[in-house]
Design brief:
By secondary structure, the chain is an alpha+beta fold. Helix content is 57%, strand content 14%. It has 17 helices and 12 strands. It has a 5-stranded antiparallel β-sheet, with helices on one face. It has a 4-stranded mixed β-sheet with strand order 1-7-6-5. The longest helix has 46 residues.
């Protein structure tokens, strides 16, 4: 018996609808999987490209292959590459959320959401359909978040970190295409980020000091207690390099070897030979009026000239004058720019306080530099034992800390504006002490063993 045509007319649309719905859901699910794979590849690219070491880049540059060239080209503009990855990842993740919401709504349907909402309405006040939609929202958020975090972020980034070179080559062509596709957006985002970074750094200068403190503490943790590491001292010097002023490391005027402009040639040669310095400041009448620098090498061919020889013709007048408060990193830049090795440090009244050389600045980072003309120990002191030392009052605190093997910052909280051991005592007492007066500062006892009306000559330092 043939089926009733009217029944076929009713069944056919239903089957057509079911088939279309099933294919639609399958297609949506397939697209969701493809997008999840794309999210994983893009997220892994971020780790792969930015974890390439200099050795990896060198390896890529040696092989003349197209993927290698594309990887190196992408790495030349890291800000643009990062912006491209972030934009692409956000587009993909948004598409995943939209498709996931559509898929879950299609699978559950309004009726099932209403049933779930009706069941919840027995426990919570509210409209059943609204409660059903709330459940759908949370299922979508929790499910999509789990999928994105596990399969779109964590797993691919772990794999990319372990196989960064292979992953970067694999994604070289896709990332190049994506980079070209999103160039207008990524370039704009990269420029904005650069401007924001510059603005942030300029307005938050206090952050630098905090970071330096944290780095100093981190370095201290790497040094075993009771030991002094040269590498650690060098790192501390680099971190605090920009905070050191000229006054802290200069050679004071009382210790400067200089020549008067009217000195005869015999005196000049004697001074050059005895001092061993390659550059000697030349002053007029007194050291407050430095007129130039004499280079010892300029006199090499004239050592046999008589005392009337006109050595003043070799005085170079390109002298740098820097204030005591100027930071040594700025002075170093000025030395590099003007190709000079020596500067005259002036005080607030314009008088010459001392000199600062390129060697002084370099020693602040890498430690003391000795050449064949330096004596075994240029700081005049007597070591009685490991806990007792006798220093001249004019000895810089910087040198005292180095000799007694303690951190250079140990006296910072007590020295105020002073830089010498005598200045530390005067700053603490507020007056000129008498002989045998003892002062305890931090873990150090300072005893005055020689003093005159004008200055403290010798101090006995004891480490308590």
């Amino acid at each position: 018996m043939d089926p009733d045509p009217s029944i076929l007319l009713l069944i056919f649309p239903v089957l057509q609808f079911l088939l279309f719905s099933t294919l639609n859901l399958i297609g949506t699910g397939f697209c969701l999987i493809i997008l999840l794979i794309c999210s994983a590849l893009v997220s892994g690219s971020e780790v792969a490209y930015f974890s390439l070491s200099p050795n990896d880049l060198d390896t890529l540059s040696k092989e003349e292959k197209q993927p290698n060239k594309q990887v190196l080209k992408l790495r030349k503009k890291p800000r643009k590459l990062l912006a491209t990855i972030l934009i692409a990842n956000n587009f993909i993740n948004i598409a995943i959320v939209i498709l996931s919401d559509y898929l879950i709504r299609s699978l559950l349907g309004e009726n099932r959401l209403y049933v779930i909402g009706s069941w919840l309405a027995k426990l919570l006040p509210g409209d059943p359909l609204f409660l059903g939609k709330v459940v759908n929202f949370f299922v979508t958020i929790v499910g999509v978040t789990f999928l994105l975090v596990l399969f779109g972020e964590v797993a691919p980034k772990i794999y990319a970190n372990l196989n960064n070179l292979r992953f970067a080559k694999m994604m070289a062509r896709p990332m190049s295409v994506i980079s070209k596709l999103f160039t207008p957006f990524s370039s704009l985002l990269a420029r904005w980020s650069t401007k924001m970074e510059s603005s942030f750094i300029s307005t938050r200068s206090g952050l630098d000091d905090t970071s330096k403190e944290e780095l100093t503490k981190a370095i201290q943790l790497t040094v075993e207690e009771g030991e002094q590491s040269e590498e650690a001292d060098m790192l501390r010097g680099i971190i605090k390099f920009g905070n050191v002023s000229a006054k802290q490391i200069m050679r004071s005027r009382v210790d400067v070897v200089a020549l008067e402009e009217r000195a005869d040639f015999a005196e000049v040669m004697k001074t050059v030979k005895q001092s061993g310095y390659s550059r000697i400041p030349i002053y007029k009448e007194d050291f407050d009026d430095v007129v130039g620098i004499l280079y010892a090498k300029d006199l090499l061919g004239y050592s046999k000239e008589d005392t009337t020889f006109n050595w003043q013709q070799f005085i170079r007048d390109n002298v740098i004058y820097v204030p005591e408060s100027k930071k040594i990193d700025d002075i170093l830049k000025e030395f590099q720019k003007k190709r000079l090795h020596m500067a005259v440090v002036v005080d607030e009244f314009g008088g010459s306080a001392g000199i600062l050389t390129l060697e002084n600045i370099v020693e602040e980072v890498i430690g003391e530099i000795k050449d064949e003309f330096d004596e075994e120990e240029e700081v005049d002191y007597v070591k009685i034992n490991d806990s007792n030392f006798i220093f001249e009052g004019k000895t810089l605190l910087h040198d005292v800390a180095r000799i007694i093997s303690v951190d250079k910052e140990v006296f910072d909280n007590y020295k105020s504006e002073t830089d010498s051991l005598a200045g530390l005592v005067l700053n603490h007492l507020g007056r000129m002490p008498k002989k045998d007066r003892e002062v305890t500062i931090s873990n150090y006892k300072l005893k005055i063993i020689a003093v005159n009306k004008r200055r403290i000559e010798k101090i006995h330092l004891t480490i308590l």
